[in-house]
Amino acid sequence: MIAKEELWEAQRLIEQSWRQEQAPEEARILGFARDALAFLSTTGQRHRFRDHRQQDSSARPPNGSATEGVLQQAERFFMKLLETSQAPEERELLQVVIDALQFIAMTGQLTSLEDYTQHLEEGAPPYVVASFGALQEAEAWLMNHPSPPDFAHVIIEGEYRSVFHDRERNIRKLPDDNASQYYLAELRQAVPPVPVASFDTREAAEAWLWTPPEMSKRMWWILVGGELHLAAYYPNINHRALFPLALVDG
Question: Whole-angstrom Cα distance, residue 160 to residue 166?
Answer without folding.
Answer: 20
